């Protein structure tokens, strides 16, 4: 460390904590070790009695933690993501907009594996609101070799950045409620309002709704009609289980749709079906989606609304973290449910 005159220390890195005592008012650290001295700090330092201070000398290949944190922020944050000004070598990673949070787990692990850099996040593949906290990045030592930043650059150069928030795209949605008991007016439809509310979160309106009995041909025709009317998302409710009157999976299949999965390793939501008719996503939703606050539908829907193509493996991976604990106060998506 080098001793410099305080007036000449602007832009230099303080090598030790400086304590200030104002009798009856304040005793504590006025400037922390590692602080980059600003023009406006000089007067206060002189008033504390520091005419000379120790400063760190940065070699050419060294970076101060704050400078390094900014360089890292630029490398790791992609579309829809921003980072805050560094404080003591730490930046917060924030969603610039509401959307689907994507985190490249492999790249995250590779960066953390380098050492001297700590990158902590929430889980990806979930809805995040504007200004939502995604994670934090801290440089561990006060001074870091710039080679570390170069290593991060080379890890990310092909597959980076690590974080993106994909905006949701409102879709023209159609709803087909199945169930002879609803069709015949024995009971009131309670499924429709639940779906309407869940789609509203993604600014998606139901432009067409129909109620059909548990008849395979009628369900099939309704699906084809929705497609012909220009539906961009088709939701079919009820009749998803194994009773003789459960015709929905067979009807969706009979339209020629390709079934990505009938059955998801998620509880509740085990009987959910996901398919594409041409490129239109179709959900077959079991009764539990009407009854339970959070199900497999809530896990998959954000990805569909961000325009992601869902493949079978996306669904089979959902078993890990797929058991809802039905907490008294539901904090989804801020819990393990749906983190796969
Ligand atoms: N033997 C088995 N039984 C069940 C299984 C299973 O694997 N083996 N799975 C269970 C699971 S998990 C669920 S979830 C439900 C799936 O139910 P469905 O999608 O087949 O639902 P439905 O049989 O059509 O109806 C169940 C229940 O909900 C009422 N309902 C349905 N739609 C509406 C609506 N639009 N409005 C109001 N109420 C509605 C319906 O009247 C029934 O009471 O199956 C389990 N069984
Ligand atoms: O589709 Mo049911 O679990 O899965 O409640």
UniProtKB/TrEMBL annotation:
Question: Which prosthetic group or cofactor does it need?
Answer: Mg(2+)
Entries under Pfam families matching the protein? MoCF_biosynth (PF00994)
* The EC number(s) this enzyme carries: 2.10.1.1
Question: Into which family does the record put it?
Answer: Belongs to the MoeA family.
State which residue ranges cross the membrane. none
- This protein's source sits in the domain of life called Bacteria
The role this protein plays is: Catalyzes the insertion of molybdate into adenylated molybdopterin with the concomitant release of AMP.
Q: Can you state which reaction this protein catalyses? A: adenylyl-molybdopterin + molybdate = Mo-molybdopterin + AMP + H(+)
Q: Which UniProt keywords apply?
A: Magnesium, Metal-binding, Molybdenum, Molybdenum cofactor biosynthesis, Transferase
Protein name per UniProt: Molybdopterin molybdenumtransferase
Top-level class of the enzyme under EC nomenclature = transferase
Q: In which pathway does it act?
A: Cofactor biosynthesis; molybdopterin biosynthesis
Q: Which residues form the MoaB/Mog domain?
A: 174-306
